[in-house]
Amino acid sequence: MEYLILSFMGFVAALTPGPDIFYIIRQGLCKGKSASFWAVFGILSGNIIYLSLVALIGGTLGRNLYFQAIVGFFGSLYLFRIAYLIYNDKPTLDTSKTCESINKWGIYKEALFLNLSNPKAMIFFAVVITPFITKSLLGSLIALFVGIALAFILSAYISSKITLKQEWLILINKIASVVFIGFGCILLYEAFKALQKLL
After folding, report:
1. Which of 102, 108, 147, 197 falls 20 to 30 Å from 86 in CA-CA distance?
2. Cβ(73)–Cβ(188) under 8 Å?
3. What is the pLDDT of residues 167-198, one digit of tens each?
4. Domains of the chain by residue range
5. Which stretch of DSSP H or E encloses residue 183?
């Protein structure tokens, strides 16, 4: 039962609005299934790194104020960069959504760094999830990962099946850039809060 609860918590947490899910959906809507699944692979790779850190150090890194300040600061800069790139991107309407021209490795790396630049993920794994892990650490982390992976895969699949007009794709890019700026500001604020606690 504990594993099912952890899996469900991971599923719901992954679907809540945040940079990861928004990036996956945007890739699916604008570039199709291949792009959205490469984004999923990148984000899940970041989650594997974070879950490995939780397994190795028992969640203390996520509570470390130096870690929160450094990752929050650089994470916000990265989110501002993503917002700038998305805002200036000129999406083309690809009704077939075949992704021959898509840089899959670029999407993977961007998604990985997007996930790793978000200290909220590490804090979620280290602080929120750790108390629920009582039986096997490995089993708990696998159950959590399965829930997260299912949510991201489902989002990638559904968003890649939706076809939009060119004007909507441009609007999605503008909204996405504003959302990423918002997340970047939140991360920067959290970094300054952590820094204030250190001083």
Report:
1. 147
2. yes
3. 777 787 788 788 778 878 887 888 888 889 88
4. 2-14+23-93+103-198
5. helix 166-198
